[in-house]
Amino acid sequence: MIKFTSVLLLALLVLSDANAGPQKALKQEFILNDQGQKCWYFQEFQDQVVYFTNKHTQDIGIIEFEDKNCMAESEFGLEINKTNINKIISKWYSHDDADFQTSAGELYPKSMLQIKGQCMQSKTYSIIGVLVDYTVKDGSIEKVIHGSSVGACRD
After folding, report:
1. In angstroms, rounded to a whole number, what is the distance separating the alpha carbons of residues 133 and 136?
2. Where are the beta strands (DSSP E) in 16-137?
3. Bridge-based pairing state of the strands 110-112 and 140-148
């Protein structure tokens, strides 16, 4: 019983820290694109909105790039730009050791209750994921919405 209680307490602590995610983020900063250029962005936060699911509310972060063409598709497609964005976003969730799967090819299509976006899974904490949804226009990532998943990512 003590072991179960300890595991449950640890899970709740990890989840409570992960659910605070977007507020840890900087409000203005840059992310390097696949050419090594600084792509400056502004970020806003919205509390208790319905976005990734059809009725579950959560806090989300919204990144918008100043130069709408900075995260443009190149000979590598958008994969490197998405990975660079994911690496920055994943730092704002959970603990430093969470080791999220940030490569575009490692993202999962869903998590519990999720109906849009993709999910980055933590390699360290099997119950923690981060949701991302990219707005791409004319071959360039213009905006990224992110928030905590409800449980683990899955196929």
Report:
1. 10
2. 28-32, 38-49, 58-65, 110-112, 118-121, 129-137
3. unpaired
Instruction: Give the residue ranges of DSSP H helices in the chain.
Output: 2-19, 79-90
Return d(Cα 57, Cα 36) in angstroms, integer: 36
Q: Which of left, alpha, beta for 36 (phi over 0: left; psi -120 to 50: alpha)? A: left
Beta strands 110-112; 58-65: pairing state: unpaired
> The tokens 């579950």 sit on which residue?
56
How many angstroms separate the CA atoms of 25 and 11, rounded? 23
pLDDT (tens digit, 9 = 90+) per residue, 19-52? 445 665 667 799 999 999 999 999 999 999 999 9
Joined tokens for residue 149 = 């998943």
